[in-house]
């Protein structure tokens, strides 16, 4: 998959469908941070618009994204949110959004022609805004610092912590996601560093107690496609989760 071709195609689609309302299109997430893995990563994009558009317009965008994913045989696909400019200027938490598309919603868009994801609030957007502001790139439109404002770090902490709230229940079945995301949260509360999962995993290998390094190394290798299967101890995964939550809670909201 040629990353630039993908970005150009999606940018062209959003420019056409959002037309005169479009303020800008911004890349964030792993691709913006230089550690995109097509087998593990979404293509993360935020689009900012001046005014509300029709549900029909957003459904047409979703249908086209599905076709592009199929054309390029994307494993993970796109994660795209469209938000009103008013919320990038005067931030609200959790943040309302106009439209959202991801692989999670793909089946619903395919099987229900009336389905639409939009018009409510998403705490994840605080993290997306912060990553965009600090490490994102412009695909089209106004410069990032003209559209997005710095927001209170407590909103970012709350947002990234929401990604790991189910760790005790989910880490056995999805260890890579939770091991690396817990590291991402701890890295931020310790050092105020905004990182990708890969960067956080590499930091954790050097900074966390030795007893967790095998677990982290396995998950990092799997995330980078260097490992076909994981060989992890379930008790150690739960022990790691307990340690990480304790560290995070001690440092949060300082």
UniProtKB/TrEMBL annotation:
<dbReference type="InterPro" id="IPR043519">
    <property type="entry name" value="NT_sf"/>
</dbReference>
<keyword id="KW-0808">Transferase</keyword>
<keyword id="KW-0548">Nucleotidyltransferase</keyword>
<feature type="domain" description="Adenylyltransferase AadA C-terminal">
    <location>
        <begin position="146"/>
        <end position="246"/>
    </location>
</feature>
<dbReference type="Pfam" id="PF13427">
    <property type="entry name" value="AadA_C"/>
</dbReference>
<feature type="domain" description="Polymerase nucleotidyl transferase">
    <location>
        <begin position="14"/>
        <end position="89"/>
    </location>
</feature>
<keyword id="KW-0547">Nucleotide-binding</keyword>
<dbReference type="InterPro" id="IPR024172">
    <property type="entry name" value="AadA/Aad9"/>
</dbReference>
<dbReference type="GO" id="GO:0046677">
    <property type="term" value="P:response to antibiotic"/>
</dbReference>
<dbReference type="Pfam" id="PF01909">
    <property type="entry name" value="NTP_transf_2"/>
</dbReference>
<protein>
    <recommendedName>
        <fullName>Spectinomycin 9-adenylyltransferase</fullName>
    </recommendedName>
</protein>
<dbReference type="GO" id="GO:0005524">
    <property type="term" value="F:ATP binding"/>
</dbReference>
<keyword id="KW-0046">Antibiotic resistance</keyword>
<dbReference type="GO" id="GO:0070566">
    <property type="term" value="F:adenylyltransferase activity"/>
</dbReference>
<dbReference type="InterPro" id="IPR002934">
    <property type="entry name" value="Polymerase_NTP_transf_dom"/>
</dbReference>
<keyword id="KW-0067">ATP-binding</keyword>
<dbReference type="InterPro" id="IPR025184">
    <property type="entry name" value="AadA_C"/>
</dbReference>
């Amino acid at each position: 998959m040629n990353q630039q071709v993908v970005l150009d195609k999606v940018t062209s689609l959003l420019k056409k469908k959002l037309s005169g309302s479009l303020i800008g299109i911004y890349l964030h997430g792993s691709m913006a941070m230089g550690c995109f893995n097509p087998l593990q990563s979404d293509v993360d994009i935020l689009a900012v618009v001046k005014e509300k558009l029709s549900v029909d317009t957003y459904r047409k965008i979703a249908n086209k994204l599905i076709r592009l994913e199929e054309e390029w045989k994307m494993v993970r696909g796109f994660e795209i949110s469209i938000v009103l400019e008013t919320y990038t200027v005067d931030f609200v938490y959790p943040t309302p959004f106009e439209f959202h598309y991801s692989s999670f919603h793909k089946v619903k868009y395919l099987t229900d022609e009336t389905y639409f994801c939009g018009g409510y609030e998403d705490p994840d957007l605080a993290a997306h805004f912060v990553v965009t502001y600090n490490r994102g790139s412009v695909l089209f439109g106004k410069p990032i610092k003209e559209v997005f404002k710095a927001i209170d770090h407590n909103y970012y902490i709350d947002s990234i912590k929401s990604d790991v709230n189910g760790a005790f229940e989910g880490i056995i079945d999805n260890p890579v996601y939770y091991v690396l995301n817990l590291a991402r949260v701890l890295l931020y509360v310790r050092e105020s560093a905004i990182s990708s999962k890969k960067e956080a995993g590499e930091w954790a290998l050097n900074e966390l107690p030795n007893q967790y390094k095998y677990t982290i190394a396995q998950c990092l290798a799997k995330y980078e496609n260097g490992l076909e299967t994981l060989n992890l101890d379930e008790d150690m995964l739960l022990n790691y989760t307990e340690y990480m939550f304790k560290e995070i809670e001690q440092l949060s909201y300082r």
